[in-house]
């Protein structure tokens, strides 16, 4: 039973801690509300879960034979996160629900596959719990992580929706978007330079 508790706390600490996806979901919650953030939350959760499963099944072993992959992932991931940060910064401070502007399911899904934090979480989780030796343990970890990830990302969206009072503060949303988008860009470069 203690291994499952350890898996729970590992999943929680990695899912709830600030990172590129969480910052994007928080910003989406502020700008569009909880309900309209849910496709992004769902895409990020499913994207991460599939990434975790792939790493657990050995995709990382195949990619280890091609170290260039990780190098390309670092730069493409940084570029994509900077793009998302830029989109947050330039988003209009007026709350308008134009479907084309909303971050969608595919954005959340893709962000996880290009997110170095997600790869680190997957690789360290699979290694820490020796999941590549037991399909049952891998399935258990994936199920635990799915639930914890979904709830954690939804909590970030809910927090964002609670910050919608910023719409009533002069330039509140504009400043929030600049801070969040800038933070996402800084996190992207930090992740790039720290490895």
Topology summary:
Layout: H1 2-16, H2 20-32, H3 34-56, H4 59-64, H5 67-90, H6 105-113, H7 116-128, H8 135-162, H9 172-193
Helix pairs in contact: 1-8, 2-3, 2-5, 2-8, 2-9, 3-6, 3-7, 3-8, 5-9
Determine the mean pLDDT: 82
Task: Decide which structural class fits the backbone.
Answer: mainly alpha
Number of domains: 1
Strand content: under 5%
Please report the total strand number as a whole number: 0
Low-confidence stretches: none
**What's the tally of helices?**
9
- What would you call the shape? globular
Helix content: over 70%
Q: What separation lies between the terminal Cα atoms?
A: 34 Å
Can you summarize the main beta sheet? none
SSE topology string: HHHHHHHHH
In short, what is this structure?
The chain is mainly α.
Describe this structure in words.
The protein has 195 residues and is an all-alpha fold. The chain has one domain. Helices cover 78% and strands 0% of the residues. The chain contains nine helices and no strands. Helix 2 (20-32) packs antiparallel against helix 3 (34-56), helix 2 runs parallel beside helix 5 and helix 3 packs antiparallel against helix 8. It is globular.
């Amino acid at each position: 039973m203690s291994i499952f508790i350890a898996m729970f706390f590992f999943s929680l600490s990695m899912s709830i801690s600030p990172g590129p996806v969480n910052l994007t979901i928080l910003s989406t919650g502020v700008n569009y509300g909880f309900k309209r953030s849910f496709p992004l939350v769902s895409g990020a959760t499913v994207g991460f879960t599939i990434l975790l499963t792939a790493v657990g099944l050995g995709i990382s072993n195949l990619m280890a034979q091609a170290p260039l992959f990780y190098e390309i992932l670092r730069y493409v991931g940084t570029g994509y996160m900077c793009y998302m940060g830029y989109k947050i910064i330039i988003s209009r401070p007026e709350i308008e629900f134009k479907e084309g502007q909303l971050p969608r399911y595919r954005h959340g899904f893709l962000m996880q596959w290009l997110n170095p934090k997600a790869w680190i979480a997957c690789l360290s989780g699979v290694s820490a719990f020796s999941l590549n030796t037991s399909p049952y343990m891998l399935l258990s970890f994936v199920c635990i992580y799915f639930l914890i990830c979904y709830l954690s990302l939804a909590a970030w969206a809910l927090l964002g929706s609670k910050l919608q009072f910023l719409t009533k503060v002069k330039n509140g949303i504009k400043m929030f978007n600049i801070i969040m988008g800038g933070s996402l860009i800084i996190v992207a470069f930090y992740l790039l330079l720290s490895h």
